Amino acid sequence: MAGAVALPDHAARADPVSAAEAGRRLRTAYPAQIAAVDGGHIVWRDGTRMAIDDGKGEKSFNALLEDPDLADIFAIPYPRGEPAPPTVNADPGRARPDQFFDRMYGNCRKGGVEKNLVEVAWLPTRGVTKIKVTRINGVAEKLSAVSAELDALPSSFDAYLQPIAGTYSCRVIAGTGRLSTHGHGIAIDLALRHADYWRWSKPDSAGRYLWRNEIPLEIVRIFEKHGFIWGGRWYHYDTMHFEYRPELLID
Ligand SMILES: [Zn+2]
Q1: Are residue 129 and residue 175 in the same domain, yes or no?
Q2: How far is the C-alpha of 220 from the C-alpha of 223, rounded, in Å?
Q3: Which partner from 94, 96, 111, 198 sits 20 to 30 angstroms from 17, CA to CA?
Q4: Over pLDDT 90: what percentage of the chain?
Q5: Distance (Å, rounded) from C-alpha 52 to C-alpha 122?
Q6: Domain holding 201: CATH number?
Q7: Ligand 1 mean position to 26 CA, how many Å?
Q8: Is residue 95 domain-resident?
């Protein structure tokens, strides 16, 4: 993911939450999927067990993205409040264990996702856009609730809400071999014309990316209230991007 640019590795760290706490947050976030936490494992509703900690200890930043375990989801806390420049490599939510999310939402390369996609009328008072997201975990209903609240914002927000830049897409994350959460049907990109993305910027002489954002906090708060995290809270910022990750929003 570093591409041609050597990124500093300051944010690499050991898991700051215990396996038990990681399990508690996952079970709280996904009650329809996870029945219990037991002996360092989550127990899925069908009885399948999945280890929370892979025993590999402290990981580099790249390993956190390329080979995360369930506890690594929580290695970097997700901040709240006014948007602010993150510290180097603070990307809460970008550690996504494939085995966990593929099991919940399917693998789009194997046809496992599309059968669960449903249409949501996006901002119905502002137009007739239909978008597709997964029905699993109630994501479609939650995005409908987001849509209703966004739709109630004054017209001064229009430029940040429309046109949307995309929802479901079975593709890899630019510059990586990892599937995007757009391939799980849990992500939406807004406001292409007001978006900022770290890959569109050039690092400074120290290799650091300057954080930029135009997305208003009112929009971010509505998504977060319904379980969606925002890519504007990442050092590797992607300010148009929201994805359903309620486990990161549990206190
Ligand atoms: Zn996105």
Answers
A1: yes
A2: 5
A3: 198
A4: 78
A5: 36
A6: 3.30.1380
A7: 22
A8: no
Same domain as 49, residue 115: no
Please, which residues have CB less than 5 A from ligand 1, an ion? 187, 189, 241
Q: Are the C-beta atoms of residues 97 and 51 closer than 8 Å to each other? A: no
How confident is residue 5, by pLDDT bands cut at 50, 70 and 90?
A: very low
Show the tokens assigned to 175. Answer: 């510059």
Nearest by Cα to 100 from 62, 143, 71: 71
The answer to whether residue 116 sits within a structural domain is: yes
Does residue 33 lie in a domain region?
Answer: yes
Q: Do 122 and 237 reside in the same domain of the chain?
A: yes
CA of 43 to the centre of ligand 1 (A): 30
**Separation CA 229–CA 188 (nearest Å):** 11
Contact call for residues 95 and 16 (beta carbons, < 8 A):
no
| DSSP string of 37-57, one letter each residue | EETTEEEETTS-EEES--S--
Distance 172 CA to ligand 1 centre (A): 11
How many structural domains compose the chain?
2
Residues 139 and 215 reside in one and the same domain: yes
50-106, pLDDT tens digit by residue?
999 999 988 999 999 999 999 999 999 999 999 999 999 999 999 999 999 999 999
Structural element, H or E, at residue 72: none
The reply to whether 47 and 160 lie within a common domain is no
14 — pLDDT class (breaks 50, 70, 90): very low
pLDDT over 50 (residue 3) = no
Q: Give the domain range for residue 165.
A: 110-249
240 Cα to the center of ligand 1, angstroms? 7
User: Per-residue pLDDT tens for 134-162?
Assistant: 999 999 999 999 999 999 999 999 999 98
